[in-house]
Amino acid sequence: MSSTKPQTFRLSLVIPAFNEELLLPGLLETIAAARERYRHGADAVQVIVADNVSTDSTAAIAERNGCEVVTVEERRIAIVRNGGARQAVGEILSFVDADTRIHPETFNAIEDVLAAGRVVAGATGVRLDRWSPGISATYALYMPFVWILRMDTGVVFCRRTDFEAVGGYDERRAFGEDVQLLVDLRRVGRKRGQRLTRLTKVKAVASTRKFDTHGDWHYFTEVIRLLPLILWSPKSSSAFAERYWYGDQRPPGPPDNTTLRR
User: How far apart are CA 199 and CA 190, in angstroms?
Assistant: First the structure.
């Protein structure tokens, strides 16, 4: 892609992606709707797909939809997110996973809460694309921590200057980098009397594919059982992360002959 970066973007959205040809189109469709609703205009939103060397048509789909594509080779989510962020030029920086769909008022809600000056960063939170007893129990387990800490998932956002000030995502982390970023940003905001927030009126819709793969009760049968090892044993933590977050290769779809511009 051309290295020339337009200076008109107000908000940059980074999407880390590895073999996401099945779910990325759904996300991009909702992003297009949110861009059209953005009061600063659709062209004020920069959409960056940080492609983690996908073997399917992820990069081609992104380019066909007008996204900037950045190739990041190392298979670690923090590094992929930071790779996309380095391409960002918007005053506001946001991140969303490729298996998510966003609310049409997302960009306006982010704009409004940051403009008020009382918030350093935040997230929209999510609804899940299906429910079951096991998924509901898992959701209930984690929500008290979300309420108390004001840390959530979905579309995560902050000012680009603050993101750069904390050094972005911690690339030493194989997982939990999203929580660490919000911890770091909260520390920056506290000095200015700012806080974290949750934009619950514009929740994203998150895929439940981890539950589809590992079972609806797997947090209770596997993750909680391994929590002491995850916390206290770096080797166990690394092995768990490799299997749980990086072991899913998501088989490629049909070949795509589109020529990519790099």
Answer: 19
Sorting pLDDT into bands at 50, 70 and 90, what band is 4? very low
Q: How far is CA 194 from CA 115, 150, 180, in A?
A: 12, 13, 17
Residue with tokens 């020339």: 4
Instruction: List the one residue out of 35, 51, 76 whose CA is nearest residue 261.
Output: 51
Residue closest to 206 by CA, chosen among 138, 120, 159, 149:
138
pLDDT digits (tens, 9 = 90+) for 202-257: 999 999 999 999 899 988 887 666 666 555 655 556 666 677 777 765 644 333 33
How far is 18 from 153, CA to CA, in rounded Å? 19
CA dihedral over 15, 134, 131, 209, signed as positive or negative:
positive
CB within 8 Å of 48: residues ≥ 6 apart: 12, 13, 14, 15, 67, 68, 69, 70, 84, 87, 88
Length of the chain: 262
Helix, strand, coil percentages in the chain from 3-state DSSP, rounded to 5: 45, 15, 40
CA 245 to chain centre: 14
Q: Which CATH number fits domain 11-209: 3.30.160.390, 3.90.550.10, 3.40.640.10, 1.10.340.30?
A: 3.90.550.10
Tokens standing for residue 230: 């995850």
Mean pLDDT (whole number) for 6-28: 93
**Which pLDDT belongs to residue 232?**
61
Yes or no: say if 125 and 151 are a contact pair by the CB < 8 Å rule. no
**Amino acid occupying residue 150:** R
Average pLDDT over residues 95-99: 97
Locate the domains of the chain by residue range. Answer: 11-209, 217-248
Short-list 231, 201, 214, 200, CA closest to 135 = 214
Strand partners, 127: 205
